[in-house]
Amino acid sequence: MERKKIIGIISVVCFIVSFILTIGRYATMGGWIPYGGVFVAIFLNYVLPFLGFLASFFSERGFLKYVGIYGNLLIIILTFVIPIITLIFWFSNPIP
């Protein structure tokens, strides 16, 4: 296989793994992580989609590239951007 196609497959695999684990985290309210799972949760929910997003730009033009870009971007928005925006609004309200 060509190198760019392998990079596209890696990007899609990163998306699929992080998507399944993100849905599992939301479905179980975070209870699936074992004792040392903070590092695992950070890696799988933040770093893996970011690496897949970056890898998708180096992949071959086509279906794998678009799935890698939009899929990993969706996971980044769900696990990083929306919680940050929610925290900004949560702590910006003055105490009555």
From TrEMBL:
Protein name: Uncharacterized protein
Residue ranges crossing the lipid bilayer per the database entry: 7-27, 33-57, 69-91
Superkingdom, natural source: Bacteria
Native source species: Priestia endophytica DSM 13796
Keyword vocabulary terms for this entry: Membrane, Transmembrane, Transmembrane helix
Lineage: Bacteria, Bacillati, Bacillota, Bacilli, Bacillales
